[in-house]
Amino acid sequence: MICKKIKNPFIVLCILFFLNFLSCPRTEASRAEFALGTVCSITLFEQGQSDIYREIFNRLREIENRMSVNIPSSDISRVNAAAGIEPVKVHEDVFRVLERSVHFARLSDGAFDPSVGPVVSLWGIGKDNQRVPAQPEIDEVLPLVNWRDIELDARSGSVFLGKVGMALDLGSIAKGYAADEAAAIIKRAGIKRAIVDLGGNIVVCGEKKDKSPWKVGLQNPGGKRGEYAGIIMANEKTVVTSGVYERYFEQDGFRYHHIFSPSRGYPADTGILSATIITANSMDADALSTAVFVLGCEKGLSLIKSIPETEAVLIMEDKSIIATSAADFILTDKTFYYKK
Ligand code: FAD
Ligand code: MG
């Protein structure tokens, strides 16, 4: 038909090429959207089909809608509203993350505590109402922070918080779970090379074309965003950092950041500026980065050494960088000094 009406073969070729272009699924190297309170960026090298991006971002929003404390209808908000009153049935995503949270709370002797919600709300760090609370206010909420008062019933899939006023906050672990879920979609789609970056929770999937390891920049805690202290080499791993520079405010020369000591109700002050965990599972790495930050260098590293195939890199206030023996880290900013 087209050939009969249009005599010029060059025009016919152009039309065929255009039709072919329209019928081929187009690839998109990378997509970034706002979810989970941060910029989430997914890079699907060479195979970035829009339906896969859509599936990933839909999944991230589904997790946010179930786990956010800022969404009143989320499972976590419903559990918090029923604290001390009644158990609440939750989606299995939420139950899974809570089981793992309690595991890490036990393992870290409460340095990581998903019931830290009342302390987080009191300080309001990153919100319009951020402030340094008076000590009596802190003393009042501290008895509400105790992971042992979280009751999980696996048979009914329900959660009960033992005291009125208790509140869960999964800010330190849910992004890790979401990153694992994004990586699982990528794997199921048969995509060979990809990077998931959920505001500092990074998963590198597959290997680079030349088979060399991925290089993940380690943020300089005192530098501008994207200024690195060094590089971590990783393949098929997650790299997750908790740092003082993510969310904070300054008052009277002090920096008050968002990672709390659950026992003191104050931002953890252990000499660590950032704690990075390198392992296979991003949910675990997320919980551990927070736990190590709160535990401090000595206890934190001994916890990491007790967990197989898990490495840590800590940037300390005195400009030292301390890493576990199998962490593949290269120092690039020589204002720091590195010890293994
Ligand atoms: P991490 O060290 O991994 O976690 C620190 C966060 O964990 C703190 O912000 C606090 O929430 C909690 N925490 C502090 N101390 C402890 C402790 N000792 N043990 C356990 N947990 C602790 N941000 C917004 O501004 N608006 C939003 O609407 C919003 N929605 C979110 C929804 C979801 C589901 C998630 C996961 C995050 C959301 N966020 C939102 C971001 C969130 O508030 C945190 O800032 C972010 O998750 C912190 O991640 P991080 O990697 O910087 O630090
Ligand atoms: Mg964390």
- Spell out which ligands are present: flavin-adenine dinucleotide, magnesium ion
Characterize the biggest β-sheet: 9 strands, mixed
CATH class of the domain at 213-338: Alpha Beta
Query: If classified by CATH, what would the architecture of the domain at 213-338 be?
Result: Roll
**SSE string:** HHEEHHEHHHEEHEEEEEEEEEEHHEEEE
Number of helices: 10
Strand order of the largest sheet: 1-2-6-7-10-15-16-17-19
Secondary structure: number of strands: 19
* Spans where pLDDT lies below 50 across 5 or more residues: 16-24
Structural class of the helices, strands and pairings?
alpha+beta
- Tell me the Rg in angstroms: 23 Å
Spatial gap, N to C terminus: 72 Å
- Tell me the strand percentage band: 25-35%
Binned, the helix content reads 25-40%
For CATH, the homologous superfamily of the domain at 213-338 is named as: ApbE-like domains
CATH level-3 fold name of the domain at 213-338: T-fold
Question: Can you give me a brief rundown of this structure?
Answer:
This protein is of the alpha+beta class and 340 residues long. The chain has helices spanning 2-5, 9-23, 50-67, 75-81, 92-107, 117-123, 135-141, 174-188, 282-295, 297-305, and strands spanning 30-35, 38-44, 88-89, 150-153, 158-161, 194-198, 201-205, 214-219, 228-234, 237-243, 248-251, 254-257, 260-261, 266-267, 272-279, 311-316, 320-323, 329-331, 337-339.
